[in-house]
Amino acid sequence: MNTLKTDFDANGFLIIPDFYSAGDCNKLIDRAAALSRSFDYKGQASVFQTNDQARTSDGYFLASGDDISFFFEKDAFDEKGNLRQPVEKSLNKIGHAMHDLDPVFDAFSRSPKIKQLAHDLELDDYLIIQSMYIFKHAKIGGMVDVHQDSTFLYTEPDSCIGFWFALEDATAKNGCLWAKPGGHLTPLRERFHRNDTGGTTMEKADPSPVNIDEMQALEVKKGTCIVLHGLLPHYSLPNTSGRSRQAYSIHAINGKAVYAKDNWLQRTQFPLRGF
Predict the structure, then answer these.
(1) What CA–CA distances, in Å, run from 97 to 112, 133, 263?
(2) pLDDT in tens, 176-225
(3) pLDDT tens digit string along 48-62?
(4) DSSP code for 273
(5) Do residues 135 and 141 lie in contact, with contact meaning Cβ atoms separated by under 8 Å?
(6) Is the CA virtual torsion 201, 230, 154, 263 positive or negative?
């Protein structure tokens, strides 16, 4: 009996401790720091805000499906437009094609362990469509509002699956994920997509509210893998601690499903690949 698949189908998420070693996690941390230090942000400082991305979307953000792009926390700059801290301590995330363009991230995203996990979850037809390195820096790591990943990676039929890796311990104080077992057994509530004017729109799909009081903190240790169903509502609070909560995530979709042409994330320069 495939207990991983059974548990995932029932709960909408899986927590797999010790999926990666501390050394594996440190390789990604070091690589992300090196990429950050090499980024020349002057003249191109894009801010990522989950609660207002439709308004703040720009060309840099919309082209990031083909690139390794850098996005700042909204409080990273002072009133004069200068960074309050070094660039590597000011970023919200890096996205969205590291898994295809950087050898370190590629190896992490397509390791034998992930290939086996994808097989156990019967994801043999799946393609990795995006990757994100999330810094969640101490004190300035912002909140990620309640959302469903399928809002941003819409397919027909729904097929989005996320793999979230704790590169450092994730606690309630430094901004761990929150979710409710079985929460994925609800409809898609919003769709984030491109509009006719060259920007993006967050469109209501279902008015059903999400009760966050029923969600639980997914506190996990470094090296843990959390698998997330695309319809599972989840969120994370601001990092109010003195420790960062760095994480890496990849999202995959069924290659046989129809990927919406107006999804914000588009791959135009090279094809998607599987695990």
Answers:
(1) 20, 10, 16
(2) 999 999 999 999 999 999 999 888 999 999 999 898 989 999 999 999 99
(3) 544 454 444 578 899
(4) B
(5) yes
(6) positive
pTM equals 0.93
Token couple for 198 = 């060259």
Say how far residue 233 (Cα) sits from the centre of its chain.
Answer: 13
pLDDT at 187: 95
Say whether 47 sits in a helix, a strand or coil: strand
Q: Quick one: pLDDT at residue 56? A: 47
Length of the chain: 275
Q: Which residues of 92-119 are buried (b: 16+ CB within 10 A; e: fewer)?
A: bbbbbbbbbebeebbebbbeeebeebbe
Residues in CB range of 23: below 8 A, 6 or more apart? none
| Tokens representing residue 28 in the block | 């990604």
User: Contact 5/120 with Cβ under 8 angstroms?
Assistant: yes
Residue with the two structure tokens 């499906």: 65
